[in-house]
Specification:
The structure is a single chain. The protein has helices at residues 17-33, 37-50, 54-68, 75-87, 93-98, 102-108, 110-113, 119-134, 137-141, 150-155, 163-184, 186-210, 222-236, 258-275, 283-303, 310-314, 321-334, 338-352, 356-368, 374-382, 389-401, 404-408, 412-424, 428-440, 448-461, 465-482, and strands spanning 2-5, 240-247, 250-257. The chain is built from 26 helices and 3 strands. Helix 3 packs antiparallel against helix 4, helix 23 (412-424) runs parallel beside helix 25 (448-461) and helix 25 (448-461) runs antiparallel to helix 26. It is flat. The protein is mainly alpha-helical and 483 residues long.
Amino acid sequence: MIIIPTEKRIDWRRPPIAVVTLILINIAIFSFYQNSDLSKYQRAIEMYDKHEFADFEAEAYLNYRKQNGILQGNPELYESLVASYETDPSAISQNILLDRDFLAYLEKQQTNWIPEEKRGIWAQVRPNIEHNIAAISSVKLGLIPQHGSLITLFSHQFLHGDIFHLLGNMLFLFICGFAVEAALGSLRFSALYIASGLGAGLLYSAIELASSRGGVPLVGASGAISGVMAMYLMLFKLRKIEFFYWLFIFVGYFRAAALYILPLYIAKEVVLYFSSDDSQVAYMAHTGGFLTGAVLLALLQWLLPESVDEEFIEEDQAVDPRRESLQNILQKIELVQFKSAQQLLNQHRQEHGHCAESDFIAINLMALKKDGQWLKANIQYLQRSSRDQELLARQLTLWQRLPAEGREKIDHLTRCQFAMRLLDGEKQEAAEAIAIELFKADSKEAMLPKLLGQLAVFYKQLENPGKAQQFEQALELQLQKSL
């Protein structure tokens, strides 16, 4: 579920200098500082595997984790590590190398765990491995709860796990940040942004240490951005403002009192924290950011009310009539008033014409009415080609709803083109399923070899040699069929 405030449109008379500067800093750090992280990790893991250190370190590592009670808060993870170890000791190499305290334990206990004939090479090579691991940005400057410092409380806010993590955070920062900066001014906004990130890191560390799970580095600007979102809501208080939402297949806009959404944000993060044991998302950091941003903005409004540009807050924004019309249709559907929704949809098309959003709504209404034109409309919608991620998500939803006999009526070219767009959109599992289905059906479609080749390249880039080889073999067989 995504809910984003969109009440304010950007006004370049109030340029978001701080927001743009923060975005550029984050992009620069990721591009020029973090770009060597993968090579450092690969060098470390190659040396580690070459010398087969996991053969004896893995058992020591499991004993270390059990003795120190580090996994009391997550016993399932310990069980999975044991299961992986029993299958292949090197399977837990990553866990071993990224644990910042294990090497010190092993150095003290090396006579118990390291075979005598291996101690010489281990003493020579292991420090080099550790040097590469220690140089990785998330290890060096990420926030590791057991080793937290003022520096890492600050620096973790400017590091990101991958390009998608970075782009997602920067998009949310821009959407919410420019309005908060316009209301507070660049300097106050920057100070509260950093403070929200500090609060996010402190709560995350406290929760992780209390649950004995504090070994995972925290990186990313999402805690600080959560604070910005909370500030946005605090600025508007009980005024009804516009929000964008995305919930499963439902996408649209609604208006609600701003402060009513803040408890929903916090409750969502807390629920996800307790229900997603294996997630890599730092839900408690988000919660800490929300709380810090809200409290600091409340204090600022109380102590320095003149610091907030109330004139900017009070400015009315023009309502997009097309968007408002679509929202009225979605509200009727949510109220199960399908006949009224259809009438509003017909009126919308007369006034605003056809678009991807209205056609998606129309197809869903056709499905409810068992309309005979539903399959034809589905196929036409799947043939739309665009890099719009919202359109692709809607297309995937329709595809997954189609019964097998319905999919078989879609020509192979359309299916290949759709799978290629899915692969471009990082939805590889759906693309893979379509490719395998066509391959098993002995399709002669000329685009199928290209799709199989793209899947092989994609999995090579993901460092999944098994899948890459599978699609290379399928590509070779498909080319043979074409001869």
